[in-house]
Amino acid sequence: MDPVYYNDEEYQEILAYLNQLTTEAETLPYPQAKELTTSLLQYFDLVHREALARMMSLINSHYPNLKRDLESDFTIKTLLGLYDLATPEQEQNGKAKGQVGFVPVGQVGLLTPIMETVWAEAGNINKLHPKELYPKELAGENVLLCKIDQKVFALRNACLDSVLPMQFGTIEGHQLICPWHGCRYDVRSGISLDKPTQKLTTYRVAVERNGDFKVGIVKERK
Ligand code: FES
Fold it and tell me: Using CA positions, which residue lies closest to atom 4 of ligand 1?
């Protein structure tokens, strides 16, 4: 089969560059960017893995010889190897060359949690006093609510690297000041103003016309 866009060497270069980009993404200094990049890679991996697995299952049952022909092409054989779909010998060869999928195999498939947002009723915005802090347990999470300039903010109610709650803290502008040792967080982003590479989990808030609001808690789907 003639190559469509790239020859085998170019394809190997593309793989090597993808590998390099994946490694660089793992060393990103910003936890939020790193988390997002990892999730993107995991979900790209899942999208491809699921469809390819179904396609190969159909090929195996209806056209068993086609798989052999497909695997005679370097790029197809490599792709199947990345998703554990190559025949054992080819799979071994693929892995021996150090090829990787979008993310290490151990981190995908059933080990990759599917996340969903649970919208929990959290009260009415008109009952919140500006700049006061309200602790609430929502969908199993300890959440801290506050209202600033008619907007509700929701954060994880535990200081970074600690389980100490922050409802006795204070609000200055958009800063939440922890009552224990004075750490400051921006309530809009959760970012620590003392350690800007770290942040508290923040939650989305959806307010209805009558002022009732819900907080979106992202949880692993059961
Ligand atoms: S526990 Fe929050 S600053 Fe120490």
Answer: 181
Listed in sequence order, the residues at least 6 apart from 196 whose beta carbon sits closer than 8 Å to its beta carbon are none
With a 6 A CB cut-off, is 180 part of the ligand 1 pocket? yes
pTM of structure: 0.54
Q: Tell me, which fold does domain 115-220 have in CATH?
A: Rieske Iron-sulfur Protein (2.102.10)
160 CA: nearest ligand 1 atom: 2
CA of 180 to the centre of ligand 1 (A): 5
- The response to whether residue 183 sits with its C-beta less than 6 Å from ligand 1 reads yes
- The angle, 0 to 180 degrees and rounded to 10, between the axes of the packed helices 74-82 and 64-71 is 110
Domain ranges, ordered by start, for the chain: 8-111, 115-220
**Which atom, in ligand 1's list, is nearest to the CA of 166?**
2
CA–CA–CA angle 115, 175, 179 (5° rounding)? 95
| Structure-token pair, residue 33 | 């960017």
pLDDT in tens, 69-120: 888 888 888 888 888 787 765 444 444 444 444 555 445 444 456 677 889 9
